[in-house]
Amino acid sequence: CRASEGKPMKQRLLVVANRLPVSAVRRGEDSWSLDISAGGLVSALLGVRDVDAKWIGWAGVNVPDEVGQRALTKALAEKRCIPVFLDEEIVHQYYNGYCNNILWPLFHYLGLPQEDRLATTRSFQSQFDAYKRANQMFADVVNEHYEEGDVVWCHDYHLMFLPKCLKDFNGKMKVGWFLHTPFPSSEIHRTLPSRSELLKSVLAADLVGFHTYDYARHFVSACTRILGLEGTPEGVEDQGKLTRVAAFPIGIDSDRFKRALELPAVKVHINELTQRFAGRKVMLGVDRLDMIKGIPQKILAFEKFLEENPEWRDKVVLLQIAVPTRTDVPEYQKLTSQVHEIVGRINGRFGTLTAVPIHHLDRSLDFHALCALYAVTDVALVTSLRDGMNLVSYEFVACQGAKKGVLILSEFAGAAQSLGAGALLVNPWNVTEVAKSIGYALNMPSDEREKRHRHNYAHVTTHTAQDWAETFVSELNDTVVEAQLRTRQ
Ligand code: ADQ
Question: 47: which residues sit within 8 A by CB, 6+ positions away?
């Protein structure tokens, strides 16, 4: 930290992510209204001590004119945000194309796009070029705002090319990169046509972080097998330059959830829900409606449970809250119809004139409604086919101080490595196994429930988002200092 008039100044942190944590709506030629999202990353970074953080990213809107850009930049500055302006064409190629159509499915083990293979192969190179161009645009904004000593923390699969762009501009910049999704086995990564270029770009960072040790190990294997580099206990070495690779499991701001449960409005909501579902056990799923979240598999497992346990048919209800995402993409539209079809069939099959077994909502819930739902739930079902971490499992646990409900958790979510001892772990593809776990969870004796809950609650309330961010930033600082010492020796 630099000193000014005897007082140490806070270290500046530039957080670079594809999306700024705001939704921006244009109200006039030069006026914008901004809504800051209070998501996990924002509260994580607000909690980091002695750091002065600013965000750099895309505001999620196309602003072709200069007047609009200037007005948005000014409005965002008050929220400590700096925009990167991307036009529609680049968003289409970089974001919809390379990020969401190629990297997202690949990193979640869904492989490269199956439909219309030839078209994908043809557009692959142009999408990768757009990806690199977009990453350079983020880098240009970082470079413009960078001051000596700043820490630059790049986030996620959208910005794998960014560490290289930043280090090319200034080799002394402290650069960290963190991946929020899984990093797949090197055998999956090697199918990617741009596999080497992406790995090399990430290796330009000083510190590379993942949610779990397995993802870090996969990344190091990809570097050794594909690039022929040397893996060391600290990371990856290339001609004397060490890139540190480590696991930094994210957490949540658990106090925010605990505080919400004390609010009168949330208590009213909890009472309403308790009355509404009196006499029935409540099971809950909260997910973005994405292929990786395993929603159809979860609902089919619930159907199997009802099929095999008729005595439970009017005693349990599944509430599935699914926020629609990427609604313009045919595959996601197909997933929505598939889920609706399965839910309709099951409700037709097991419903009565007065009750249905599944309530499925295609929407997002506000924070207080979500907390109330978590609090009244007896069994949460998180059955992702792959998930970097999965914060819903953490949020459920944080809201269960009173009820001590059961978490059924996919072994393919990063969270399985931290909450595995308290949760019932399942293979989400095995519908019979998940159905059995539902039965086990609903019949679990209270002392076992309490023991499992205690384990998870202790983890969630002590491994918070603030700790995660603080640890990453301090390790990044240490890594740079160690590297300087090594080069001096
Ligand atoms: P996501 O895939 O978005 O994030 P997740 O970790 O589950 O997944 O977080 C989702 C967030 O959205 C949670 O805070 C949840 O409360 C909220 N949410 C989901 N459905 C909702 C609904 N219907 N209504 C309201 N809120 C809803 C990526 C990776 C994850 C990783 C995170 C953080 O894919 O694996 O855990 O980043 O690193």
Answer: 253, 464, 465, 466, 469, 470
Ordered DSSP codes for 248-265: ------HHHHHHHHTSHH
Q: What is this model's ipTM?
A: 0.98
Cβ 216 vs Cβ 243: under 8 Å: no
Residues near 314 by Cβ (< 8 Å), separated by ≥ 6? 280, 352, 355
Asked if 459 contacts 423 with a C-beta cutoff of 8 angstroms, the reply is: no
Q: Which of 181, 381, 199, 418 is nearest to 300 (CA)?
A: 381
CA–CA dist 300, 298 (Å, integer)? 5
pLDDT in tens, 442-461: 999 999 999 999 999 999 99
CA of 286 to the centre of ligand 1 (A): 8
The structure's pTM equals 0.95
CB atoms within 10 A of CB 95: 21
Q: How far apart are the first and last CA of the chain?
A: 24
**Relative to the CA of 364, which ligand 1 atom is closest?**
24
Burial of 239 (0-12, 13-18, 19+ CB in 10 A): exposed
Distance 383 CA to ligand 1 centre (A): 13
Residue partners of 33: CB distance under 8 A and separation at least 6:
24, 25, 27
249 CA from centroid of ligand 1 (Å): 15
From 142, 33, 39, select the one nearest 84 (Cα to Cα): 142
pLDDT in tens, 24-77: 999 999 999 998 876 667 767 766 777 899 999 999 999 999 999 999 999 999
For the CA of 391, the closest atom of ligand 1 is: 6
Instruction: Ligand 1: list residues with CB < 6 Å.
Output: 40, 180-181, 250, 286-288, 321, 323, 364-365, 370, 387-392, 395
- The position carrying tokens 């439970």 is 312
